[in-house]
Description:
By secondary structure, the chain is α/β, with parallel strands linked by helices. The protein is built from ten helices and seven strands. Helix 1 crosses helix 10 and helix 7 crosses helix 8.
Amino acid sequence: xxxxxxxxxxxxxxxxxxxxxxxxxxxxxxxxxxxxxxxxxxxxxxxxxxxxxxxxxxxxxxxxxxxxxxxxxxxxxxxxxxxxxxxxxxxxxxxxxxxxxxxxxxxxxxxxxxxxxxxxxxxxxxxxxxxxxxxxxxxxxxxxxxxxxxxxxxxxxxxxxxxxxxxxxxxxxxxxxxxxxxxxxxxxxxxxxxxxxxxxxxxxxxxxxxxxxxxxxxxxxxxxxxxxxxxxx
Length: 233
């Protein structure tokens, strides 16, 4: 199977990270979790000493998009390493803006880097759709491990991570007020990207994200033609 890029989009709670992780585990993709990557950067020790990181941490923790130019720089550096190593890659919600994806003026976006390493026909944007009410329900109940980042199983009555026994926490991003802000950001900045992808000749694959994750995964792998494949490298 040729190296591939899958870019999973959708509102908060659509299951972007879950589907990306399933692709990574089942087919050997590298899961580039942009949200976790950026959270790690802006919450790293000593962040208060760096004015840029301090600014981006404030944006991140209030639900606003981090400065696109800074995100693009950080993500492109990591993507070049993955592409050069010869791995397929799946993104969860990145690139998130027209600028990050396609650039502006002389500044090239992430898609230019991806096309260079993978070829245009091997890049697949996937759009998971869910209702706003589903976003609020899923995210308001979500907790993650403060040590390894593993999410709590749905409806599980536990206070410790089932993997490493680390304490669970609610992300700043998952507070109802922040979720509503994230939905506004998604509608205003990310949604227009689907039109631009189509205008530039990419096929946007639309998948219903409301069913159980395994059912969504079956549909995703079917439309990507991965059902009989094993490896993403």
